[in-house]
Amino acid sequence: MLIKNGWVLTNRVEKKDVAIEGNTITELGKSLSGSEYIDASNHLVMPGLVNTHTHLAMTLLRGYADDVPLHEWLTEYIWPREMKLTPEDCYYGNLLGIVEMIRSGTTCFHDMYFHPDQAVKAVRDSGMRAVISCSLAEFGNRAHALDVLKTGLQFMKTIQNEPRIDTSFGPHSPLTCSPEYLLTVQDHARKLNKIVHIHLHEAADWIEKFSKSHGQTPIECLESSGFLGENVCAAHVVHATDKELDILKTHGVKVLHCPSSNLKLANGIAPVAKMIKKGVCVALGTDGAASNNTLDLFAEMRLMALLQKLHDPSAMTSGTAVKIATENGGSALKWNAGRIEKGFLADIILVDLKKACMTPGHDVLSNVVYAANSSAVDTVIIDGRIVMENGVLKTLHEDEIIEKAQEHAYDLVNR
Ligand code: NI
Predict the structure, then answer these.
(1) What is the mean pLDDT of the chain?
(2) Residue 166 Cα to ligand 1 middle (Å)
(3) Is there a single domain that holds both residue 213 and residue 303?
(4) Which of 10, 28, 235, 407 has the fewest CB atoms within 10 Å of its CB?
(5) Are strands 37-39 and 129-136 parallel, antiparallel or unpaired?
(6) Whole-angstrom Cα distance, residue 369 to residue 243?
(7) Where would I find the H helices in 22-68?
(8) How far is the CA of 53 from the centre of ligand 1 (A)?
(9) Are residues 39 and 78 located together in one domain of the fold?
(10) In this predicted structure, what is the pLDDT of residue 80?
(11) Number of domain units in the chain
(12) CA–CA separation, 22 vs 304, rounded Å?
């Protein structure tokens, strides 16, 4: 397949053709020939966006309990509903999220939620790419947590060598998992060459509570236990001292930045510009739709860049913001994706340059970060397959999914 006549985003934006064989980008150049092609005239051809932290089936709880403090939000609204989630709820919640993500140019996501087998099913059915975590939490019951880990390992075994799907370990956070348990999980992850997906330094009072009982902050504690490493994907890291950022950099920890969720739950603004300056790999995520409330990474990218400019307009360039949302996401999730380059996976989106929000085109990258919204996303290719063409989803029945998800969401909150 060829993508012809588009403005291709590599290190710069240039008019080129892109050749794809199977699921891989095989060539970039001028006037490539081939019989099967997409005409990308007047379109920006860019890497698909990578959502590195979400709880996808939480789409069912979108808008269910907003504008309340975190503790009340969790204990009175979210947790009681989550106790009643069925596998079928999760399946439709996942599909609803995937529809929204494809429409907003996301081609890969990293999930941590209940019934991960249903996320796998939704990914298989949609043609999406994903890393699905098995959720783990200890809550003071080591024996039970080790059983759940065993189940997680079996789950991982059932989906080895699947196209477009990888698995990761998802121990919830240092607050719900002891350092010893986390180290056991990390040992398995290292043996199996898997990612460990964890919430880290999200809320200031949680860090304080942990520090009081352990005599160290979570980041310091996880360093001294030997848990940190380049396979650790740490969601949030809103609060971190210079010393803690140096620790993350030294161990190659990836930070999964979720600015909307951090603001909505009043956790603060992560020092992303500083992280980048220090050489920490930062990628972008939406968190669950109950704490965002969209899964639109264009909105997230814009918010991220603007927040870093609070005191310095040059603190984050549009080029850096796009790199965080694409290439860094691919690196964090260990997929060879996030760049339009020979040998990379063909996860590509076409953005319509004739949309009002993309006009005029003085600086296309600037438009992508500060002006674009999901309505400009026209065509989406994942793993070399077209999943949306000219705004029409090719792999999913959108109306039916929206109807089913609505039914499951209403039923869930009234159950
Ligand atoms: Ni989260």
Answers:
(1) 97
(2) 19
(3) yes
(4) 407
(5) unpaired
(6) 31
(7) none
(8) 6
(9) no
(10) 96
(11) 2
(12) 34
Q: Which pLDDT value is given to residue 68?
A: 87
CA 197 to ligand 1 center in whole angstroms: 10
The CATH number given to whatever domain includes residue 110 is: 3.20.20.140
Q: How is residue 115 written in tokens?
A: 């019934």
Average pLDDT over residues 119-147: 97
pLDDT tens readout for residues 11-40: 999 999 999 999 999 999 999 998 889 999
pLDDT more than 70, % of the chain: 100
Between the CA of 234 and the centroid of ligand 1 the distance, in Å, is: 10
pLDDT tens digits, 321-358 = 999 999 999 999 999 999 999 999 999 999 999 999 99
**Do 350 and 380 sit in the same domain of this protein?**
yes
Q: Directed axis angle between helix 218-225 and helix 204-214, to 10°?
A: 50
Whole-number Å distance, alpha carbon 25 to ligand 1 midpoint, is 32
Same domain, yes or no: 291 and 238: yes
Which burial class, exposed, middle or buried, applies to 41 when counting CB atoms under 10 A from its CB (0-12, 13-18, 19+)? exposed
Q: Are residues 374 and 284 in the same domain?
A: no
Q: Does residue 70 surpass a pLDDT of 90? A: no
Give φ, ψ of 39 to 5 degrees.
-85, 110
**Tokens of residue 244, six digits:** 């803690």
Q: Is 402 a domain residue?
A: no
Kind of pairing, strands 281-284 and 106-113? unpaired
State the residue range of the domain holding 29.
Answer: 2-47+344-393
